[in-house]
Structures are given as structure tokens and as C-alpha cells.
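Sequence dictates fold. Below is an illustrative record:

_____
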Amino acid sequence: MRLLFALAALIAIPAFAQAAHAQDRVAIPTPQGSGAVGIGTSTREQPAFTVIAEPVAMMIAAFDSDGDGKVTRAEFDAGLKRSFDAIDTRHQGWLGYIAYSDWQERWMGDRNTVPSPFEVDRDGDNKITFAEIAERFDLLFTRFDADKNGVLERKELVTIRPQMPPPGAGRGKKGRGPN
């Protein structure tokens, strides 16, 4: 009886795996004349896309003070200063590493986001000044500004990439690719 149960479980596993894999795919409409089977409204399976926003990109997007979906350099600088001042409640002009972690959690959602305090504290004095944060974030602004126009648009703050299919997916018989 146990053998029969084990055999039934082994037979069912591929069906469960296939069902789980199917939910990771979406049907994409195929235009007429694309070579796909069917006419006009046929569909073919494509991997779903993943939109990724780095925690620092989400923080930068929150600096959009006029709600136009763009972050100018002035909005960026003002937002960064406002975020620093919200944690520097003693008005010391610097944050210790614990306060910097509090700043990361409040503005980026987690204490372990990038840039780390070790990247930002350039002089190694265990104090992170606004100038040190501004210097590091200037590099981030430049990196995100893909079109180099001095304005960060939402599309520059997200990364869109297809989900990777599991190893061996889409292969023909005996592990070979399609002919």
C-alpha cells in the first residue's frame, strides 16, 4: 500500500510543478501576421516581467514635491536635506551609525540598504555629516539620470526585467533546444 501511495505521489509531482510554473507566465496578445498560430487575437506564452525599484530609488521618488512625477535636482537636494534633518533632531550636523541606520529604515524601508554607513563616512570618524551623504547621493543621482537631463523620471528609477525561466524550461526532447 505504501508503495502504491509513493508511486502516486511521484506521478503527481510533475503535474504540480507544471501548475506552479504556469502561474508565472502571462498570455501576451500576438499581432496578426507575426507567425503565431491563429489569426488576429491569438496569444503565446511569455515570461512575466518584474519591475524592481531599489530602496534608494523609492526614497528619491518621494522627493517629488510638486507631484509631476519627476524629481529635479532642486527637489532632490531639498528632499535629501529634509530627510537628514528629520533624523538629526539635536541639530548636531551629523549622524552616528545607529542614527544613520534609523535614517535608512525611515526613508528606504530597511536598516541594511545601500549605501552603507561605511561607504558614506568618507573620513572614518564614525560620524556621517550631511555633506558626506550629499556627496554619496550625488553619485546616485548621476547614475539614475540615464538621459543626463538633470531630472529623474519614474522610468529612470525602476528596472524592468523578464523573469528567468527555470533551468531546462522550453527545451525539446532529450534536453535539446528547439530545432
Remarks:
- The first helix runs from residue 2 to 22.
- The longest strand covers residues 25-29.
- The beta strands are 25-29, 43-47, 49-52, 70-72, 94-95, 128-129, 151-153, 159-162.
- The chain has two domains: 2-47, 55-160.
